[in-house]
């Protein structure tokens, strides 16, 4: 559609582009796979301290979320994706406020009134 | 009950009829309450019948179906939202009058049973928040926002129909609960464990849950629709910082709807799981924890407060600027203040339960966050006052509401700062002081905003002005009635009277209660004045005609089109070069120019989706309330089939030809040129046909 | 007032997920809105999941003497479910690329594989619930189990809904071919599918791995 101001790619270019995009998905898949297997393996086969385990699980999960956003949902730092990125960051901010606040409030209440509910 | 009837009717029996208990229990209290409840149910049934008969008598079913119910036009959907809001407003005001009457004579007993009183304050609160305020502001944003940004419709017109259908279904459910009673007595907040099955096995709480859930879903979808429209459909040249302030507040409201509604969906959803599937989320036994509900509910509840108040802020910004004949003072600061309020509104929800038992440092943190919101709000108040400063103020009806708003809202804000102090809150929480505070925010804030907007944009929507004399009467009744009805409640709260009390034993309360009751009657008068205003305006519609579209010397794009605007809003999408785009055009003498070129316009085609989803969701909710599982399953299957089936539809648009657009537009332009422009002193006279005289040389702009 | 040039030409649609590029430009405008709108809706949904997770954490102590995570969860089954979802995300990616290069047969093939993986995930999840029920892990047993069954099955319901949508899209493709609404539908479904995988990361890390550690 030349109306949009973008020229049609040649067949060779298209094939190249397609291969690049497929590689990107595979990279994403590989990274996600590794980041999934690390915590599972740690839990199943090692006997590390609980805190270390939790931190690893948390860190792997966070990185994996970023990997998914980057490789599967194509959210990048690119200017044209700025709106989407800002939307995600805003959602994350709200999530942190709401979830963090919930945990803060409820566990404080447990400490003062319902010690049985502390896990 | 036999097995077959319970299979068909679930747990719905004769005792659901409002006069049933009266037949068995002949005490005078039971009879009075039965008569009141039956009267209310009769009003609903007769009202519905009257509407059906009227439409049939006028032969307007086809018109109603093709021009309204299935119309994807954002303007018509907006008007239908407002109609729902007005009907529900009338009901909730009548309920308020009954509550005030009960409390005025409530020393030791009164004439209402506790059960009946509980239903009154529950439905009053639920209706006012979910079925008056939300549809009202949704309707006004729906109508005005696309016009202000130079768009032809919302991004998702069919989704808009579905939102309307869901809200209508929720409102209908609350109305049905008058006929097939009872409604919940758990208050509009519905706190468990009181609303759990163990304490409240009847249908009431289930009515509440599903009515609120339908409204929540509707608002979430509406929020998505508004936000995407504002982000993606602005006319060329309308950068974010050239958007009218009302559109800015609509954007922030939409964002709050998107992120603020989910907590309520979670809260009511979990409560429903508790009641229907024997979960133990909020029960008192087996590890349930009702404090989670309170937390979730207010994580919604506080953003909700700002969903309700931001659109009026935007409306008043437009009204002050227009009727002061000046550019709004401090546009950028107002935008920043709006965004600050939107974000801060997510950080204060704990102030609704300061007394639940958490540590003082948590209370302090949330108390301080609450007080912080006072800063951007204060900034706004100063900006509005500075907008009026040295302006050529016209005390029109919207302006009377706006000035009433500023004075009363600041007062309510002060009491809010008082309540934000946890140590004070410990003294007055759950008292009438709180009731006075939030009515002081919501009536002068939200309701005056909505009424101001109705008076302001009504001529845009219908092509004729609302009659001013009755408008003034309504406005002053509202202002005075509000003060009489709610200022005594501050005193009563300080004297220790708890909210939601059906009766009391302190004789000192009585005089204040009587004053509050008189205030409620004044508000009832205000409602009557509004109805008369509407009637008189429709009667005089030919003399008050403002077809040219600009009755108030408006500043923003919606005033540049005809009144009422054509279905496609703008024959040619306008180009925007500045803030207050239409005013700039008028000043530069570029307004109402004949476009060089007309194009075909693609508009969304009519769709039955809104009606279908509205009916099926109503059937589903009704089935869930009365345990009619066949109805739930059938309605669910139809909903799914409708959504899947909609995906297969391809004729979703229709074309309006360029010729038709040209003919319509040029005929209007021709009439406009023949209309004499008027100056502002004749704004409220019959000379005003919607064409404003260019500003006087040297006038403050 | 200077008259700045207006209406800068936008080269192509910009939205989350794979952008289809110049070959599909004629439908770009409405697609940009549709996909962006769906993305916004997903963010709203994310708040629901986030709050359910936070509530779940606050209910960890509410087992009321009933079975807890260690007695109920099985690591192997969770790993299988995780892998199924992850692979399905990748296969949906392949489907998106096939869509972009207009290879209809491959598109259908990848979508069917994704659908099969989705069903497999649901099968294993339901099997898990069944085992839990047999061990006495029913939602009415305790607040903790109520919280679990309000969070994890909701994700499962989303996957089921997405599968129904996928079937509906395949049906649309059979009737109307690969037209603009079908393309937009696949793009939005892709976002939902990847989004559900992200939610699952939260669930397996917090609920299962956290519970078993």
Automatic annotation (TrEMBL), chain A:
Entry's transmembrane regions: 24-45, 51-73, 85-107
Chief place where the protein resides: membrane
Signal peptide stretch: none
A Gene Ontology biological process term: electron transport coupled proton transport
Pfam families: COX4_pro (PF03626)
Cellular localization per UniProt: Cell membrane
UniProt-recorded name of the protein: Cytochrome bo(3) ubiquinol oxidase subunit 4
TrEMBL record, chain B:
MF-aspect GO terms: cytochrome bo3 ubiquinol oxidase activity; cytochrome-c oxidase activity; heme binding; metal ion binding
Cellular-component GO terms for this entry: plasma membrane
Subcellular location: Cell membrane
Region described as Disordered: 674-701
One GO BP annotation of this record: respiratory electron transport chain
Family: Belongs to the heme-copper respiratory oxidase family.
Full protein name: Cytochrome o ubiquinol oxidase subunit 1
Organism of provenance: Kushneria avicenniae
UniProtKB/TrEMBL annotation, chain C:
Record SUPFAM superfamilies: Cytochrome c oxidase subunit III-like
Protein name: Cytochrome bo(3) ubiquinol oxidase subunit 3
Organism of derivation: Kushneria avicenniae
InterPro entries in UniProt: Cyt_c/ubiquinol_Oxase_su3, Cyt_c_oxidase-like_su3, Cyt_c_oxidase_su3-like_sf, Cyt_c_oxidase_su3_a-hlx
PANTHER family in UniProt: CYTOCHROME BO(3) UBIQUINOL OXIDASE SUBUNIT 3 (PTHR11403:SF2), CYTOCHROME C OXIDASE SUBUNIT III (PTHR11403)
Matching Pfam families: COX3
Subunit structure: Heterooctamer of two A chains, two B chains, two C chains and two D chains.
Subcellular localization(s) per the UniProt record: Cell membrane
Any one GO molecular function term: cytochrome-c oxidase activity
């Amino acid at each position: 559609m030349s109306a949009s101001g973008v020229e049609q790619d040649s067949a060779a270019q298209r094939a190249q582009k397609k291969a690049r995009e497929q590689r990107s998905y595979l990279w994403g898949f590989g990274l996600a796979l590794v980041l999934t297997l690390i915590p599972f393996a740690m839990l199943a086969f090692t006997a590390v301290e609980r805190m270390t385990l939790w931190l690893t699980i948390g860190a792997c999960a966070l990185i994996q979320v970023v990997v998914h956003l980057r490789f599967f949902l194509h959210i990048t730092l690119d200017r044209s994706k700025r709106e989407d990125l800002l939307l995600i960051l805003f959602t994350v901010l709200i999530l942190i406020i709401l979830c963090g606040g919930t945990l803060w409030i409820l566990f404080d209440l447990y400490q003062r009134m319902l010690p049985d509910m502390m896990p | 009950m036999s097995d077959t009837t319970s299979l068909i009717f679930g747990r719905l029996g004769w005792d659901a009829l409002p006069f049933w208990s009266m037949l068995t229990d002949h005490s005078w209290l039971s009879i009075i309450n039965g008569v009141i409840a039956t009267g209310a149910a009769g009003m609903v049934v007769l009202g519905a019948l009257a509407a059906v008969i009227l439409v049939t008598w006028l032969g307007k079913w086809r018109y109603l179906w093709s021009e309204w119910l299935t119309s994807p036009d954002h303007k018509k959907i907006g008007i239908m939202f407002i109609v729902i809001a007005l009907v529900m407003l009338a009901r909730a005001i009548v309920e308020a009058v009954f509550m005030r009457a009960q409390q005025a004579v409530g020393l030791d007993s009164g004439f209402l049973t506790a059960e009946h009183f509980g239903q009154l304050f529950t439905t009053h609160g639920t209706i006012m928040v979910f079925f008056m305020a939300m549809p009202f502001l949704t309707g006004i944003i729906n109508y005005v926002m696309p016009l202000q940004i130079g768009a032809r419709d919302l991004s998702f017109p069919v989704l808009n129909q579905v939102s309307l259908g869901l809200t209508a279904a929720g409102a209908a459910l609350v109305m049905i609960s008058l006929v097939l009673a009872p409604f919940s007595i758990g208050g509009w907040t519905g706190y468990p464990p009181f609303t759990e099955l163990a304490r409240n096995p009847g249908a009431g709480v289930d009515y509440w849950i599903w009515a609120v859930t339908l409204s929540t879903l509707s608002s979430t979808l509406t929020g998505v629709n508004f936000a995407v429209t504002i982000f993606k459909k602005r006319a060329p040249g309308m950068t974010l910082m050239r958007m009218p302030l009302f559109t800015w507040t609509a954007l922030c409201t939409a964002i709050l709807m998107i992120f603020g509604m989910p907590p309520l969906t979670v809260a009511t959803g979990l409560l429903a799981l508790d009641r229907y599937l024997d979960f133990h989320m909020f029960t008192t036994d087996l590890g349930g924890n009702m404090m989670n509900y309170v937390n979730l509910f207010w994580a919604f509840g506080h953003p909700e407060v700002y969903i309700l108040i931001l659109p009026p802020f935007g409306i008043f910004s437009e009204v002050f600027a227009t009727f002061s004949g000046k550019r709004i003072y401090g546009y950028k600061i107002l935008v920043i203040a709006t965004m600050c309020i939107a974000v801060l509104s997510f950080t204060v929800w704990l102030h609704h339960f300061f007394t639940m038992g958490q540590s003082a440092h948590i209370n302090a943190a949330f108390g301080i966050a609450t007080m912080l919101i006072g800063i951007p709000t204060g900034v706004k108040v100063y900006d509005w006052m500075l907008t009026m400063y040295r302006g050529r103020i016209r005390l029109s009806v919207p302006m009377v509401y706006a000035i009433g708003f500023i004075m009363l809202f600041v007062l309510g804000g002060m009491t809010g700062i008082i309540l934000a102090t946890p140590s004070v809150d410990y003294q007055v929480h759950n008292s009438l002081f709180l009731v006075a505070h939030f009515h002081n925010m919501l009536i002068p804030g939200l309701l005056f905003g909505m009424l101001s907007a109705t008076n302001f944009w009504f001529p845009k929507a219908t092509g004729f002005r609302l009659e001013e004399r009755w408008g003034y009467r309504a406005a002053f009744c509202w202002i005075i009635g509000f003060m009489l009805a709610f200022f005594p409640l501050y005193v009563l709260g300080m004297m220790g009277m708890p909210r939601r009390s059906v009766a009391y034993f302190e004789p000192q309360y009585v005089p204040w209660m009587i004053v509050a009751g008189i205030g409620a009657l004044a508000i009832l008068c205000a409602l009557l004045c509004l109805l008369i205003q509407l009637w008189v305006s429709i009667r005089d519609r030919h003399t008050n005609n403002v077809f040219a579209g600009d009755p108030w010397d408006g500043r923003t794009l919606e005033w540049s089109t005809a009144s009422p605007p054509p279905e496609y809003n703008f024959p040619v999408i306008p180009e925007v070069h500045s803030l207050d785009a239409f005013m700039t055009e008028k000043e530069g003498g570029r307004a109402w120019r004949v476009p060089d070129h007309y194009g075909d316009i693609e508009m969304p085609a009519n769709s039955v989706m809104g009606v279908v989803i509205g009916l099926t969701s109503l059937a589903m909710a009704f089935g869930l309330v009365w345990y009619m599982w066949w109805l739930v399953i059938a309605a669910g299957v139809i909903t799914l089939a409708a959504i899947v089936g909609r995906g297969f539809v391809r004729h979703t648009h229709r074309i309006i030809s360029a010729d038709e657009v040209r003919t319509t537009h040029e005929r209007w332009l021709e009439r406009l040129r023949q209309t004499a422009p008027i100056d502002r002193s004749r704004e409220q006279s019959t000379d005003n046909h919607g064409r404003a005289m260019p500003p006087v040389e040297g006038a403050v702009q | 007032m200077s008259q700045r040039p207006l209406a800068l030409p936008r080269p192509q649609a910009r939205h989350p997920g794979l952008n289809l590029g110049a070959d599909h430009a004629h439908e770009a405008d409405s697609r940009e809105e549709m996909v962006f709108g769906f993305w916004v809706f997903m963010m709203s949904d994310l708040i629901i999941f986030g709050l359910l997770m936070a509530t779940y954490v606050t209910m960890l102590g509410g087992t009321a003497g009933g079975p807890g995570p260690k007695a109920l969860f099985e690591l192997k089954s969770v790993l299988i479910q995780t892998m199924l979802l992850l692979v399905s995300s990748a296969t949906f990616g392949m489907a998106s690329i096939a869509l972009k290069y207009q290879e209809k047969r491959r598109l259908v093939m990848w979508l069917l594989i994704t659908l099969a993986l989705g069903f497999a995930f649901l099968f294993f999840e339901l099997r898990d619930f069944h085992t839990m029920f047999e061990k006495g892990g029913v939602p009415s047993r305790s607040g903790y189990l109520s919280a679990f069954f309000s969070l994890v099955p909701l994700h499962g319901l989303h996957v089921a809904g997405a599968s129904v949508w996928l079937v509906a899209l395949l049906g649309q493709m059979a009737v109307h071919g690969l037209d603009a609404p079908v393309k937009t539908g696949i793009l939005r479904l892709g976002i939902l599918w990847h989004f559900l995988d992200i939610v699952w990361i939260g669930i397996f890390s917090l609920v299962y791995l956290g519970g078993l550690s």
